[in-house]
Amino acid sequence: MNNQQPTPVEVQLKKFTSSLDITWADGELSKIAGGNLRRHCACSGCRSRKMIGTELITDSGRIKKINLMGSTGLQIIFADGHDRGVFPWAYLHAIANGAALDYLDQ
Amino acid sequence: MNKQDVLSVLESIDNPLMEESYISLKAVNSVEVDNGLTTVGITLGAKAISLDNINSMALKAQLEAAGIGPVEVNFRSDVLAFPTINTQKHLSGVKNIVMVASGKGGVGKSTTAVNLSLALSAEGAKVGLLDADIYGPSQCAMLGVDENVKPEVVDNKFIQPIERFGIKSMSVGYLAKEKAPMIWRGSMAVRALQQLMEQTLWGDLDYLIVDMPPGTGDIQISLAQTFHVAGAVIVTTPQEIALLDARKGIEMFNKVGIPVLGICENMSTHICSSCGHEESIFGAGGAEKLAQDYTTPVLGSLPLDSRIRENVDRGLPTVVCDPMGALANAYIALANQVAAKLWKSNLSALESPKMMISEI
Description:
The structure holds 2 protein chains of 2 kinds.
Chain A: E1 8-14, E2 19-24, E3 29-33, H1 34-39, H2 44-52, E4 63-69, E5 73-78, E6 86-88, H3 89-96, H4 100-105
Antiparallel strand pairs in A: 1-2, 2-3, 4-5, 5-6
Chain B: H1 3-10, E1 14-15, E2 20-21, E3 28-34, E4 37-44, H2 49-65, E5 71-77, E6 97-101, H3 109-122, E7 127-131, H4 139-142, E8 153-154, E9 158-159, E10 162-164, E11 167-171, H5 172-175, H6 186-199, E12 207-211, H7 218-226, E13 231-236, H8 240-255, E14 260-265, E15 270-271, E16 278-279, H9 286-293, E17 298-301, H10 306-313, H11 318-321, H12 326-348, E18 354-358
Helix pairs in contact in B: 3-12, 6-7
Family (chain B): Belongs to the Mrp/NBP35 ATP-binding proteins family. In the C-terminal section; belongs to the Mrp/NBP35 ATP-binding proteins family.
GO molecular function (chain B): 4 iron, 4 sulfur cluster binding; ATP binding; ATP hydrolysis activity; ATP-dependent FeS chaperone activity; metal ion binding
Domain MIP18 family-like (chain B): 3-61
């Protein structure tokens, strides 16, 4: 089917360094820092704030927990309690490759 | 002839429905060669029992033509479950959740969903039908369920689906008071649907068909993201406006990572009941164009025929009302394609990634 989405094989949350390591089906390894994920959170609140231009209140990128959301992607729960962001696999892949904004513009 | 020879011949024989070899479909269950007689066991991952006999005869003939003495072929089918489905506890007996959706209303989603469900059931599958159109539930009427029939509540927690024509169905229409409109905000509607999905005692199902409300809003996205949906069937009419919206539907499913199994073109042509003239009222070839653009197949085409409408209005969908008719056959063909595409998609579906958490 027309499913050219990047497929994750392994997801590792490293709590101490607060980073996410994702191994994709083609062997590529993405290391994404928690702060990077927090900045790119695509929940409605964060997106509207970005649109208005107000600053992020907390800069904590510490990740408390990750949940698998169906086959879509990951829900990331940050240590500051922010849990509204669901990150589709393709978006995570885009963030790791510095193409997050392109993904959102699509 | 030994086992290896048989397997290598099987590699070049395609299953006609899947257009793929039995080997690459991982459908070959057993091969035994005993005293010159070869026995081949095939397990199909899709229910299409009307085709099983003829396909097994064809396979037998092809194997014998390839020089493998006398052959006996045994066909059985066991629907392949969507790989990540067993991680959802309430729905653990449901193998595949399939959404029937469109971008636009009025293209015949509910009619297609109910007839597709019945056709899948006629092909030997265990089928459930969830009416997710909570603002305008129609499955109760289409299935001809009496207004006074209410689903039984079990343990104050679960509800028993209503069985009709061999399929299990659930709808807000069964629960709400007659004719009272649902005046709900998005979040309330989403919660209500999640509960309908999770708290219905579906039991073991091969396919749970979800008749989606039109659009690409709150309800659609939340449903798509909360449940492990195996695939979506997009219903459209050939007219330009409907195709435009169908496009948005496909884009939405792509975005949330649900495989689009294909497109069902509804109301494709009209055959005049008095003179027999065939006319494409809504235009022609639109679904093919759409299918090409998104490299997704056209699963079936249904004509604009007043009988389809009359039948569901009467609570007796076409597949059960006139099972031998051309229209029922078209729905059976659609059901075969949906089952086949779902099998194929599940074969290649992504397995759940391994999740690890380390303290360092």
